[in-house]
Amino acid sequence: MSADDSAVLRVAGRPVARYVTRPELPARLSPRPYLHPVTTLAGTAVTELSPADHAHHLGVGVAVPDVEGFNFWGGRTYVRDRGPTELDNHGSQRHTSYQLRDPDGFVEELRWGAAPGELLRERRTVAATGLTDRAWALDLTFSLTNVTSAPLSLGSPATNGRPGAAYGGFFWRARKEETAPDVFTAGAEGETEVHGRRADWLALAGSTWTLVFAGATEPTRRDPWFVRTAEYPGVGSSLAHDARLPVPPGETVVRRVVTVVADGRLGRDEAAALVRKAVSV
Question: What letter would DSSP give residue 181?
Answer without folding.
Answer: P
